[in-house]
């Protein structure tokens, strides 16, 4: 597996960094989730695609095959909703737009991964990003 050298978070994604506890359990959680998804699909997608292609090249983060910019997908390493066996608390909605959680993938790997996120041990969903990374042991890819 080729190492990935990710630059600092682009300025336009800084508001989405999950560096502190987010209000995902509040009554506004669904509104925040919808707003972030809308921002990604409409406003931020072209810039984000350009930045992800600069990091990964046109290669899938999992299989390293060529993932054409028109056919590849923005992959959330920790899935935005659901995690088998995780129930309601097994989601990572607060990380859906965090720069460190966004990867470039081919459609085949994205389809097979879906919302799966196998771990050795417990999940730390709804926690700030650095606490999550420090305490979880993912099986798919190791983050350094």
Structure, explained:
There is one protein chain. The chain is mostly helical. The protein has one domain. It has three helices and two strands. It has helices at 29-56, 107-113, 129-135; strands spanning 73-76, 102-105. It has a two-stranded antiparallel sheet. The two termini are 13 Å apart. The model is unreliable at 84-89 (pLDDT under 50).
Task: Give me the secondary-structure topology.
Layout: H1 29-56, E1 73-76, E2 102-105, H2 107-113, H3 129-135
Antiparallel strand pairs: 1-2
Instruction: Give the strand line-up of the largest sheet.
Output: 1-2
Kindly report how far apart the N and C termini lie.
13 Å
Q: What share of the residues does DSSP label as strand, in percent?
A: 5-15%
Largest sheet: 2 strands, antiparallel
Count of the domains: 1
DSSP, total strands: 2
- Give the mean pLDDT: 79
Tell me the Rg in angstroms: 15 Å
Tell me roughly what share of residues is in helical segments.
25-40%
The helix-and-strand class reads: mainly alpha
H/E element order: HEEHH
Q: How many helical stretches?
A: 3
Query: Which consecutive residue ranges, at least 5 long each, have pLDDT under 50?
Result: 84-89
Oligomer: single chain
Basic shape: globular
Brief summary:
This protein has helices spanning 29-56, 107-113, 129-135, and strands at 73-76, 102-105. With 144 residues, the chain is mainly α.
């Amino acid at each position: 597996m080729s190492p990935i050298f990710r630059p600092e978070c682009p300025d336009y994604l800084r508001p989405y960094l999950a560096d502190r506890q987010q209000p995902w359990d509040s009554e506004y959680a669904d509104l925040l989730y919808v707003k972030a998804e809308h921002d990604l699909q409409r406003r931020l997608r072209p810039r984000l695609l350009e930045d992800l292609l600069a990091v990964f090249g046109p290669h899938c983060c999992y299989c390293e095959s060529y993932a054409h910019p028109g056919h590849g997908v923005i992959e959330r390493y920790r899935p935005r909703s659901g995690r088998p066996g995780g129930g309601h608390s097994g989601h990572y909605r607060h990380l859906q737009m965090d720069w460190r959680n966004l990867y470039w993938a081919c459609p085949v790997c994205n389809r097979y991964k879906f919302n799966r996120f196998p771990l050795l041990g417990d999940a730390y969903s709804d926690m700030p990003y650095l606490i999550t990374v420090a305490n979880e042991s993912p099986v798919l890819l190791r983050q350094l």
